[in-house]
Backbone:
């Protein structure tokens, strides 16, 4: 796709994605009301990691439970920003309040629970599936549609990359996230108990 920086999409497309407006193609930028979504930069690391840790702590997840992990935040280029991935942050008045990423689903597994991608591809086959991960919204600004904006933007990117299916997982403690995914047509495919915590796997076909 040819890149056109700073060029808004047509109004018809903006309406189709319910108020989320793509205002720049490469690197991608969207606006949703006062929220501005853009690609992650290295200077965002500490803020993004803190938002991740706070989000999991609020639902009782902790290091060593088999579900909690964060090594990917130290390999952002390898896991998200190159080779068919993406990571977005959402800002309001220059403050990061939301985030989410796309990560290739063919990465070699590793880490606790045996399902934590480390960055090496297991195949040379064409891209097929991508995982949507790290969806977080700061508690101070929840219930404003910011989570939905991140999901929509990431789905748009997944389509642009040519993926066939989106995958994600969440836990039984994260019911708001599960409800949000279901709103966008995701369906549950299986459940797994990891360290006494029920992990719920969901997916959505893109074509």
Residues:
């Amino acid at each position: 796709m040819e890149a056109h920086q700073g060029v808004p999409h047509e109004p018809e497309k903006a309406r189709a994605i319910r108020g989320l407006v793509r205002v720049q193609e490469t690197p991608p930028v969207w606006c949703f009301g006062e929220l501005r979504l853009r690609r992650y930069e290295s200077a965002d690391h500490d803020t993004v990691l803190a938002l991740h840790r706070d989000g999991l702590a609020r639902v009782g997840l902790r290091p060593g439970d088999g579900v909690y992990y964060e090594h990917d935040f130290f390999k952002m280029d390898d896991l998200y920003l190159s080779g068919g991935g993406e990571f977005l942050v959402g800002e309001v008045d220059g403050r990061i309040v939301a985030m989410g990423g796309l990560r290739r689903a063919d990465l070699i597994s590793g880490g606790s629970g045996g399902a934590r991608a480390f960055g090496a591809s297991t195949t040379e086959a064409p891209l097929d599936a991508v995982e949507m991960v790290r969806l977080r919204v700061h508690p101070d600004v929840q219930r404003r549609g910011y989570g939905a904006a991140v999901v929509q933007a990431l789905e748009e990117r997944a389509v642009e990359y040519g993926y066939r299916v989106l995958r994600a997982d969440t836990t039984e403690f994260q019911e708001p996230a599960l409800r949000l995914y279901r709103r966008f047509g995701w369906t549950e495919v299986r459940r797994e108990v990891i360290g006494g915590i029920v992990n719920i796997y969901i997916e959505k076909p893109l074509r």
Q: What stands out?
A: Residues 11-167 form a domain with the Aminopeptidase fold (CATH 3.40.630.30). Residues 6 and 117 are 34 Å apart (CA to CA). DSSP finds five helices and nine strands in the chain. The first strand starts at residue 21 and ends at 24.
